[in-house]
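Worked example 2:
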Amino acid sequence: MTPTSRPIRTAVVGGEPDDWDVIDHFLGDNSLPPRFSGDSSGLRHHVDFLPSVGQDEWSNQLRRAIAHDSPYDLAVFDADTTSLPLIDMLHVFLRSTPYAHAIVLCDVESSIPFQIAERFGCCQRVVLTRKPLDQTEFSMLANMVVGKVTEQRSRQSSLVFTNNISPSAAHGQLLEAHKLLRAQADQLTERLQDTQLELINTRDVTVLALAQLADSRDPETGEHLLRMRAFAQILACYLHNEVHHPEIDDNYLAELYRSTPLHDIGKVGIPDHILLKSGKLTDDEFEIMKQHTVIGAKTLERATRQFRNSRFLHMAVDIALYHHERFNGRGYPCGLRGGEIPLSARITALADVFDALTSARVYKTEMPFEQAYELIVAEKGEHFDPLIVDAFEHCLDDFARVKLAIDNGEQESIELSGGARIELNSIVGMECVD
């Protein structure tokens, strides 16, 4: 029996019933989809659950499987099954066949990944996934690993049939195998992209919902977050296209779009009698109000410890903490001056103040657009970065267009001057066109 004609065989070593259910849901079907099989009939998949197998018994199990021409192609090990000498059992398994692959389940805090890296650092046949198992995540991972097993089995099989058939026929079979693998790779890539987009959508909707929840306690209008986020994007896009600012690229724009709505999330920690006060705050009350910057930054900083690679959360910390700093050093909470203030916070500061000036509040009326413009320009080099004020002056028409669109409930796509287009409720936020 050639490698590609026999069933895919998997051993599940150790583990818990809840995880077995997830594994069985994907790998426990009677057959795999046709894309794994090399023909339209589909390839059968056999799964053995071995909850309490020991090292010697595991070695014997592998030998028996090979002797009966049905070796295990895939093994799923639960690293938290304390009776398993995992590293040694992995080593024996990977040596059993040239296309053996392993999936290791482990907790986030486990030391197993370091042990595996030390022992199998150059090996691409061991992958890890976290517990408890997520069905979607595991199905994608298993899809990828089974695809790799199938590809390597096909390669070995091609060495067999090329010795028994004519070169032209062998070449035809190799071409068919190549087409099959390409189709499989395209399918996996498409599924991965769809899943990544879904995760990004879910994350960004959640972030905006949290920001709006914090904003709902403030006597500001409901569209404040949408407007100031759009204003910040307009400024950053101008600095990117016209000034060619070295800090700003497409990734920066996307991160700024996601981060700016979180600028006032710390207001959830400010008492209602201060946050909702319609009159002027006393000096003591204002000192408490200032703490929303610190509260928000500390909250977001805790999140960055859980998601260390999330760049937009790191930017959100800077914006939350520093968006009330002033270019002349007279802002709060740290009294930073000029370039000491992160660029993202300098951009957000102007966008936030301009929207506050041109929006009605319970304690004030809406300031006319031209008057707000003159006030912003008058604060050039004092409250605001001169470079960003210059960008604001060039983009004033776009500010007006965005404000009118959002205030009228048009929250989809707006074309701006210079060919740029802003998507007011999208993930990317703005397509900057040179």
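Confidence is low (pLDDT under 50) at residues 30-42, 159-165, 426-434. The chain has two domains: 8-195, 216-431.
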